[in-house]
Structure formats: C-alpha cells, structure tokens
Specification:
It is a single chain. The chain is α/β, with parallel strands linked by helices and 80 residues long. The protein is 39% helix and 28% strand. A four-stranded parallel sheet has the order 2-1-3-4, sandwiched between helices. Strand 3, helix 3 and strand 4 form a beta-alpha-beta unit.
C-alpha cells in the first residue's frame, strides 16, 4: 500500500486529496506546517509528498531543503 503525505495549511486541499484517492490503495496522512511534515517523515516515511510552498512558520522551500537533507531520493511534488 502506498503512503502519501499532503503538507498544506488549508483543510480543503487535504480533503480533496482524500476524496480523489478514497478508492485507491493509498494511505493519506497530512501535516499543516513544515515542522509537522518533518515529524511525519521521521515517524512514517511516505512514498510521495505533496508540499505546498506557502505554509505557516517554515515555508515550503525551507521544508523542501530539510526533507532533501534527510533523503535525496524522496519523491516531493511542490504545489502553489
């Protein structure tokens, strides 16, 4: 089963991913900030991360740098 992490501070975006992927074999987790995303990756490495650029606190680009430092091969898709 694939693991997907959606990093966005807008709940409607996360709900949209859940609705679209509801019938697929995908486990969706979410984070509302860059800091929460880093913690989520440490706990349970996702197969794919959808990362918003505009986040409270640490923005998406800073989060991307820290995720890349953790794992260069991680699949990360930036959203605006």
């Amino acid at each position: 089963m694939q693991r997907l992490l959606v990093v966005d501070d807008e709940p409607d975006i996360i709900t949209g991913f859940e609705r679209v992927l509801a019938r697929r074999e995908v486990v969706i987790s979410s984070a509302g900030s860059g800091e929460q995303a880093l913690e989520a990756v440490r706990r349970n490495r996702p197969d794919v991360i959808f990362l918003d650029l505009r986040l409270p606190g640490m923005d998406g680009l800073e989060t991307l740098k820290k995720l890349r430092a953790h794992d260069q091969k991680m699949i990360i898709i930036l959203m605006t």
